[in-house]
Design goal:
Length: about 425
């Protein structure tokens, strides 16, 4: 375990320091018709249609919201195919052949600083809704809904912690595009009429602190602060980040907005900058492909809709091809396992981790308490497991506080018996619905 932990740390340091490689012109892109938050979708295009970059090609429908989806290239619709989504589910995608021209839809247009200064909160809602901006740290929560809050917001808190092992996409976003992060944060400040922006990063990343501090000299008088928080997991959980970064304790079940705090991921505010400045949806994103199962761990700038298979090839392919691989889309603690690499990079994909499979045998629980001590939400994972096995919906709903579980994976990670407790927590959440 110690050797493995060191290996993870070395890979993380490696990808943090690697510059981003641009791979933004794949021959085909694949755009999902539905996603984890929107179980229904309507497609506006058919095979043979010509589309432009940024053109609305369909509408996804969620339980309380709708979101348009866009073509990320200009080209021709050539088919509808099934591929794996970041949720781990097989999903229908629109396949578009890239004409390599990047002909923009007429809706994409530059706004002047004077025009932006006049935008109201309602304008921000409309722009982010039309651009389908969502939480790009992986939450995929629609940004326009955040702008609809009626709670007075004092602080815009930017999550640059990226606390899961292996991940470095947000790290490279800050290092390479600090102006977008800061300007996007100030747009959020404007929308909410907040008093300050606080960007949270880990203490150990001096390079991020230096980069942001240097860039802030270009924004004299801007109410932007950089707070350095703990170097541990799950420091990126917004409740923990708000506690350590702002000194505010958010009670269970209470939204941070009720306490005057609105949280955005760094990649999300970079996307907000593009939506406000150019009226453009997210067309590309930073993405980390890493792990001991591929030849060259790499940070990428990818076109949304790129096939994961192509990205793996760009890294030189698999190492030790005779060994079975574990593919995790997202972070190793909270990501989704894939059964094969026929997946697509959507706008909320932060990374893919490819590891050589090392089978582990699950053993009976020894009541050591490791899962309880490690749970950041103060839950009882073994009791949750037993309730799931007994189909005890009453205990799950009313006694075990399963709604507070963030599926961080700590209970599984620390379990001395190698029990997949997080999976039981995931099942308990479904039973509690």
């Amino acid at each position: 375990m110690i050797a493995k932990t060191r290996q993870i740390a070395n890979i993380r340091r490696l990808t943090n320091s690697l510059p981003t490689v641009r791979y933004v012109n794949p021959e085909y892109v694949y755009i999902a018709i539905t996603n984890a938050r929107c179980g229904q979708g309507e497609c506006y295009v058919k095979v043979g249609d010509k589309v432009k970059m940024g053109q609305v090609i369909g509408l996804r429908k969620g339980p309380f919201f709708e979101q348009p989806f866009h073509s990320t290239v200009s080209g021709e619709v050539v088919g509808f195919v099934k591929k794996f989504h970041r949720s781990g589910k097989l999903t229908e995608f629109v396949q578009i052949k890239n004409d390599m021209q990047d002909t923009e839809d007429e809706s994409i247009k530059e706004r002047t600083d004077e025009e932006i200064a006049k935008l109201t909160r309602e304008d921000f809602v409309e722009i982010t809704k039309n651009c389908s901006l969502v939480g790009l740290g992986g939450s995929s929560f629609p940004t326009y809904i955040k702008f609809q809050t009626t709670d007075p917001i004092d602080t815009i808190c930017i999550n640059g912690v990226e606390c899961e092992p292996y991940l470095s996409a947000d790290h490279r976003m800050i290092m390479e595009h600090p102006r977008r992060v800061i300007q996007g944060s100030l747009y959020a400040l404007q929308a909410f009429k907040a008093k300050r922006v606080v960007i949270c990063i880990k203490k150990k990343y001096q390079d991020l602190y230096d980069t942001l501090t240097a860039e802030l000299t270009q924004f004299p008088g801007a109410p932007v602060e950089i707070h350095r928080v703990g170097n541990y997991y799950p420091q990126g959980w917004e409740i923990e980040m708000i506690k350590t970064g702002l000194g505010i304790k958010v009670p269970a079940g209470v939204l941070p907005a009720k306490l005057g705090v609105m949280v955005f991921n760094v990649s999300t505010v970079a996307g907000l900058w593009r939506a406000i400045k150019r009226n453009q949806p997210v067309m590309k994103r930073n993405f980390t492909l890493t792990g001991d199962g591929i030849k060259t761990p790499t940070n990428f700038r990818l076109r949304i809709g790129t096939s994961l298979t192509e990205v793996i090839a760009q890294c030189g392919g698999y190492i030790n091809e005779d060994k079975n691989k574990v593919l995790i889309l997202g972070g190793p603690m909270m990501g989704a396992n894939l059964v094969r690499d026929d997946a697509v990079i959507t706008k909320t994909c932060t990374s893919c981790i490819i590891l050589d499979e090392k089978p582990e045998v699950e053993e009976p629980c020894v009541r050591c308490g490791s899962c309880v001590y490690s749970c950041p939400a103060g839950l009882q994972p073994v009791q949750i497991m037993q309730a799931v096995k007994n189909n005890d919906k009453d205990s799950i709903k009313n006694k075990l506080n399963i709604k507070s579980c963030i599926l961080c994976g700590m209970c599984s990670y620390t379990c001395t018996s190698k029990i997949h407790l997080t999976e039981y927590c995931r099942k308990a959440k479904k039973l509690a619905m």
